[in-house]
Amino acid sequence: MKIGIEIHQRLDSSKLFCNCSSNLTEGEPVFTIQRKLHPVLSELGETDDASRVESAKRRLFEYHVFSENNCLVEMDEEPPRNMNRKALLIALEIAKQLNATIVEEVYVMRKIVIDGSNTSGFQRTSVIALNGHVHTSKGSVRITSIALEEESAGIISSSDSKASYRLDRLGIPLVEITTAPDIKDAAHLRETAEKIGMILRATGKVARGLGTIRQDVNISTEGGARVEIKGAQDLKMLPDLVENESKRQLELLKIIHDLRSKQVAGVKKSICDVTSIFKKTDATLIKKGLESGSVVLGQSLPGFAGILGRELQPKKRFGTELSNYAKMAGVKGIIHSDENLSKYKISEDEQRHLQKQLGECFALVVAPEPQAKAALEYVIQRANMEFVPEETRKANPDATSSYMRPLPGKARLYPETDVPPIPVTKELLESVESTESLEDKQKKLEKLLNKELAAKMIKSRYLHVFELLVKAKADPKIAATTIENTLVSLRREGIEFQDVEKALLDMFEEFNKDTFVKAAIPEVLKGMAKGASAESVVKVYRLQKITGDELKKIIEDENHDLKAIMAKHRLQVDPAEVAKLLKAKK
Amino acid sequence: MYSKKILDKLKKKKIDIGDTITVKTKDHIYEGLLMPRPTLGDSDVLVLKLNTGYNIGITADSFELVATTSAKVETEKTEEPKKKGDIAILGCGGTIASRVEYKTGAVYPSITPKELRTTFPELEKWPIHSKQVFSLFSEDMNAYHWKLIADEIEQEIKDGSQGVVIMHGTDTLTYTSSAISFMLQNLPIPVIFVGSQRSSDRPSSENKMNLINSVFSATRDFGEVAVCMHASTNDDFCYLHRGTKVRKMHTSRRDAFKSINAKPMFAVDYRTKRFEELSEHKKRNKGDLISKKKLNDNVALVYVHPGIKPDLISKLDSYDGVVLMATGLGQVPTGVFEGKHVKGIYKPIKELIASDIPVVVSSQCITGRVCLRVYSNGRLLKDAGVIGDDADWTPEAAFTKLCWALGQTKKMDEVRKLMETDIAGELSSRSILE
């Protein structure tokens, strides 16, 4: 099995080809627009398979437009502006961190994507570096390319005839890091993804939060095919995703073998109209379809009995694969004879008639006639593949995957004629900031913290906050435990900060004034979560540090009992100071 | 273009653009297709299309040929036989009908019948034939090209076409549509100009909807020059604007074309067969075509601005006619009433008119009607004999009309009469409410 990964990480800058903000808000759209897309020839005079498939659906696309995040560029009503220099510099910095060779001229390309996720029908993308590598515990993983590209629009809803998207995130700069198929196994995949993620975060210049990093996994198995699985948001999912895909390809190979040994000679097109069987049907799905003008078409699948029901992935059968192909015609799916037809309320009589007309094994589609026919043609096409097809698949939340479209070829890329090539000049390269490498950062952390905490911190998504705090003279150990422990337990209690960075800087500034003790940090933060300043929280919640004569009095009152003192005044006294006073007394 | 150094090396190794080559640099070896350099100028940086489809620029230490591509551009016949009742599609270039052949870097018209049908399969519904008249950026066109187009349309009418659709660049499209409106009057069939704002090489191009709506409209019952473009930013329907009453009002939006001082003639959607009348229009086959194609394009169109130098106007005496884009209701600085710091252009205008050079006024406000009776500066112009009082024409219509009028007659009084008479809907008697 060969595994490679593509990591998409949003950068912390305004949009790549206009000056709109990349800060997404929850606001309402100012208006919506409606568009259609159609396939075009590439510069090589070819159309791309993937885009042909999508265009066959002829869907209407609706776009929600947001005032802060959109201008005419995202609406595809104005040519792109110049490439955002800040984003380019960040991408070049990342390329350096990944030991890659930077190209001498950046060519912005159009990658045809006509599922509506880009108003223009393409995504602007450009290779900025090649041939890098990243070190892992199982050896070096090569990085074939690093590209700087536009984020797509966010999907709101999708149906057979229409898809709706939000335009606010369209055009946010992303780096796409593609590795060679050097990854050894599922655990190594996770490690590589984590390592690259850490390198990206270590620059301090990438976006943070949910959805700002995504992984696509490329898997190919011996005898199988290369499959790209898109959209795994959670690293924890990766090992299961790999396992499920390798199982799917293995099962497919077994099916191919079994069909061969049964000498099944392929499915011949014999689509027939079986609508009349369902004239008085109780099957809700079919009844509803017929009422709205659909027909029921059937195709016999001789030799596939038992195979349609075979599980390829948890709860995903061979029939599901056929059904996913059928969906390309814009239908909702298929009904097949390895399913329990009674669950659709198809009567035994109707089942008998179906078998008489279509044989033991068959697929049915309920849809308007041209669509139903096209859907069954896709079913036949898939059934007749005596190989594992190369596909782009979508990661499902349960770590299985579903067919999306054929693997896109190079026909989908052609030059963006509205953006001239960008020379990577000496001046530009000199402007690239050289932040410390991840290794250097790790060494530095190990000097500040114990090994365990350093290892935690280097992986933390708040590494940049830690660095800021240390710069602001916070105690490194307290800063690290606050970030890695205190914040985590507060989050478990449902306490979140809108701006963690700001809150922690404020809290540590106050702490450094010695107005409250370490043990009170969680309480102070709790108070601050509602937006109050550290200073006012300390006052209002009476968390001021007790010291001097007042502390001496407490010691007297508690009969010099450290335990009793701490039990009562834990949040206000510094145990070290108490211990010192106690010692002095003795 | 590549530098001479590179071109010489390529020639020596018999490498053509589009061939697969390997490129050695100091660190790596790359393989890919050699692409043309997209920008002008001279360069040593090779553009390579990698297997992934990405293009990159690299300086080569050396490069070698791996395989040649024999794929040559198909040269296809650009004209096909016509039948009576056809809709003729004429190609004149522009964004709508061009694509870049990246192997050579040349721009090719995609007007060939095969390409039209491949790109727009919906066209199969109608009997069409197509012809490439020429392929130009619209800003490169002039009266010579208007004449070529008019000749083609006249021929199509003679040959019995039921309508003509002309694919045209958008920048100067309304100059052409105006000129044709004057050159070919009393049209028996619809003549529809169409363009697109998004290039045809992008999936979001509105060329498809505009073109198909044009072809659909060409089968309908009207006999005028119209411009068919998107009605809004949505891909929902198009407007047919009158050829003399339309203007490009945005640099890039799909709905850049607006009817000026008029409503569009029709709202069109071929998918729902909508062909909704929005304003008055001439029906088809009402009388015979009046062909008056002669033009005199020795006409200047001048934008009046604060501080405009009298000298600039004096120097226009080598022209046969002048159109001014005047301020507001039609004023220009005259310098007659407040002479101290004002250098007006009243005197040179008067001199032009005195030497039988017609001076025509339109407004840089674009919308609204010229009125030379409100302000003193306007009255002076009117007294001097400037043409255009009460006109609600666009500057483009005024300009092309003057070219046409000067092509019909040299007599000032006849030019004035032609200019002041509504010929092709360019002048309306009522200012509509919008």
Helix/strand class of chain B: alpha/beta
Average pLDDT confidence of chain B is: 90
Q: Between the first and last Cα atoms of chain B, what is the distance in angstroms?
A: 52 Å
Contiguous low-pLDDT stretches of chain A (5 residues minimum) are none
Number of strands of chain A: 23
Quote the distance from N terminus to C terminus of chain A. 71 Å
How is the main sheet of chain A built? 11 strands, mixed
The largest inter-chain interface, given as chain pair and residues per side, is: A-B, 53 and 42 residues
Shape of chain B: globular
Describe the model:
The complex is a heterodimer of chains A (586) and B (434). By secondary structure, chain A is of the alpha+beta class. Chain A contains 19 helices and 23 strands. In chain A, the strands form 5 sheets. In chain A, strands 1, 4, 6, 7, 8, 11, 12, 13, 20, 21 and 22 form an 11-stranded mixed beta sheet that branches. A 4-stranded mixed beta sheet of chain A has the order 2-3-10-9, with no helix packed on it. Chain A starts with a strand and ends with a helix. The mean pLDDT of chain A is 89. Chain B has 434 residues and is of the alpha/beta class. Chain B folds into 3 domains: 4-67, SH3 type barrels (Roll), CATH 2.30.30; 87-291, L-asparaginase, N-terminal domain (Rossmann fold), CATH 3.40.50; 299-420, 3-Layer(aba) Sandwich (Rossmann fold), CATH 3.40.50.40. Helices cover 23% and strands 23% of the residues of chain B. Chain B contains 10 helices and 22 strands. In chain B, the strands form 6 sheets. In chain B, strands 9-6-10-12-13-14-17-18 form an 8-stranded mixed beta sheet, with helices on both faces. A 5-stranded antiparallel beta sheet of chain B has the order 4-3-2-1-5, with no helix packed on it. Chain B is globular. The interface between A and B is large, with 53 and 42 residues.
